[in-house]
Amino acid sequence: MTEIVHATPRRRLPVLTGILVLIALAILISLGTWQVERLYWKEGLIADIAARQAASPVPLADIEAMAAAGGDIEYRKVTATGRYINNKERHFFATWRGQTGYYIYTPLELADGRILFVNRGFVPYDNKEPEMRMQGQLTGEQTVTGLAREKLPGKPSWVVPNNDVAKNIFYWKDLDVMAESVGLEKASVIPFFVDADSTPNPAGLPIGGVTQVDLPNDHLQYAFTWYGLAAVLVVVVAISWFRKGAKTPQQ
Predict the structure, then answer these.
(1) Contacts with 86 (C-beta within 8 Å, 6 or more apart), sequence order
(2) Confidence of residue 150 (pLDDT cuts 50, 70, 90)
(3) Whole-number Å distance between alpha carbons of 63 and 232
(4) How far apart are alpha carbons 227 and 128 in whole angstroms?
(5) Radius of gyration for the alpha carbons in the chain, expressed in angstroms and rounded
(6) Which of the pair, 45 or 105, is modelled with greater confidence?
(7) What are the Cα distances from residue 145, in Å, to 20, 129, 183?
(8) Are 77 and 145 within 8 A, CB to CB?
(9) Is the torsion defined by CA of 187, 122, 160, 211 positive or negative?
(10) For site-directed labelling of 61, which of 98, 143, 188, 200 has its Cα 20 to 30 A away?
(11) Exposed e or buried b for every residue in 114-127, given b needs 16+ CB within 10 A?
(12) Exposed e or buried b for every residue in 135-160, given b needs 16+ CB within 10 A?
């Protein structure tokens, strides 16, 4: 006697597919919404930085107080007065407008004896040594105006070379090592930098005003991408269901 087995419709697969589609759709929409939120944040940040750069400079003491309170001092205009310690300058490898060279970080000794490291600007590769730009080695009391720059907490990335202290070539701004390498006590060094503005130096070197504010804002494009993928998913699923419905034999 032959046993007849009646097939039971397999409904689990369509249900599981539907759940997976809903999960994928939720993820894509969430990613798109997150990028929109990032867009608003980035636009606000760009506007804030622009406002800081357009503002009048404030005394160094104000920036110090803000930093001590945990405030954001990045790109805030500041002014400071002191004497450059030219024989302790440090050299940061950099490019400026397509030319290879160095940013010159020179300690500025304040009236109270503390030290502020100032990025005085760019010099071409052949002008690395002070003897090649003696006119720009300012002496006597100087007042510098520029942008406050926060101290880096550590090496930015493993791809960045290690600083070559022996040759006075820095590939990342390690303030503590810069100070230590020229015999300055960490306690006497103000824990942030100042990038000097574009006020001309004698003989044109260093070239000030080299601060580069480059904040890419591609979040709108990313948001369109994620929302677009969500829309494509809906269309593909709708077409698939429509075709399956058309192929279902009539009872």
Answers:
(1) 106, 130, 137, 138, 139
(2) very high
(3) 51
(4) 51
(5) 30
(6) 105
(7) 58, 24, 26
(8) yes
(9) positive
(10) 200
(11) bbbbbbbbbbbeeb
(12) ebbbeeebebbbbbbeeeeeeeeeee
Give the pTM: 0.78
Q: By the 8 A CB rule, do 117 and 175 touch? A: yes
Identify residue 7 by its one-letter amino acid code: A
User: What string of DSSP letters covers 43-59?
Assistant: HHHHHHHHHHHHSPPEE
Q: Hey, what are 71's tokens?
A: 């405030």
- Asked whether residue 1 carries a pLDDT value surpassing 80, the answer given is no
Find tokens 């429509």 and name the residue: 242
CA distance 170 to 107: 15
Tokens of 136: 């720009």
Structure tokens of 103?
Answer: 């940013």
> Do residues 145 and 196 make contact, with C-beta atoms less than 8 angstroms apart?
yes
**Residue 67 structure tokens:** 């930093």
